[in-house]
């Protein structure tokens, strides 16, 4: 295991993905304080990629270039220091590897990707933790990849899309993966990819990047709702899922969800508890709602224990840290929970600053 890890880490370094010059980013880190108390901040929503994966996919049906701002470089640390982020949970959130029909290829893609992340985390153990993004088109393989990532590489959870080549992973077909998540007691971060499984082809091809603006939160809301109504959360009562972008549209209009499968006439629902119980226990959401009222509403619907800090780093979205710090609706204890405390617990991060 370790020799394989060392080999793949060396490949990643040779590709330039881990080339680091400490002097290029060393600077004073912004310290975040609540009522004068220094707190530890943790970001659940941080995109990353490993360029060495290009060597694995060259000449295959999923060949592509891997680059851009997602690559792990010293500038990531500089950005984190400027924003006041102490720990970043990095994950690969593009999921193009779901299209790999060859099981061996899918296995190798994730192995190289995860080994690259592990090498980066090993270099900066106080600043990063890893989330694996397994090949969920093969649920049993994804379970094995999660097991390896957690038990051998020290990862703290997984990241998945809202659908797998059009199939929402709420049915029993994916139970082997969910069972492994529950067994390892690790959270799963859901990052969508434009709701191509829901919206007709071309349905969002209009001005304003609607696949991102409307499709992404729709995809997340659809997955989480399916997991409630299809009984996935009941089959795995200790499963914990975090939805990107404020949990999508789900928390914003949850009353309608409650009516549908809480004695409201939809007799085919499989959920055993009122829908809100899942929203306040097994479902989490990141803080990407961008307004004081949006944050107030999200916390009111879900509870402060279910909301975590997320940035979408390094893709240029507005940061919500100041929104949380200066909220007039949250207590100091709730601000500390959202900015770091909840994720410290979920991801088993050392509380020491």
N/C terminus separation = 32 Å
**Overall strand count:** 10
Largest sheet: 8 strands, parallel
Sketch the topology as an H/E string, one letter per element.
HEEEHHEHEHEHEHHEHHHEHEHH
CATH homology group: Metal-dependent hydrolases
> What fraction of residues sit in β-strands?
5-15%
Describe the structure.
- This protein has 353 residues and is of the alpha/beta class.
- It has helices spanning 2-14, 53-57, 74-83, 103-123, 139-151, 175-184, 210-229, 232-235, 244-247, 254-260, 275-279, 292-302, 321-325, 332-346; strands at residues 33-34, 37-38, 42-47, 87-91, 128-132, 157-160, 188-190, 241-243, 283-286, 307-308.
- The strands form two sheets. The protein has an eight-stranded parallel β-sheet with strand order 3-4-5-6-7-8-9-10.
- Helix 1 packs across helix 4.
- It is globular and about 55 Å long.
What tags apply to this protein structure?
353 residues; alpha/beta; TIM Barrel; 8-stranded parallel beta sheet; two-stranded antiparallel ribbon; 41% helix; globular; disordered N terminus
Give a topology summary.
Layout: H1 2-14, E1 33-34, E2 37-38, E3 42-47, H2 53-57, H3 74-83, E4 87-91, H4 103-123, E5 128-132, H5 139-151, E6 157-160, H6 175-184, E7 188-190, H7 210-229, H8 232-235, E8 241-243, H9 244-247, H10 254-260, H11 275-279, E9 283-286, H12 292-302, E10 307-308, H13 321-325, H14 332-346
Parallel strand pairs: 3-4, 4-5, 5-6, 6-7, 7-8, 8-9, 9-10
Antiparallel strand pairs: 1-2
Helix pairs in contact: 1-4, 5-6
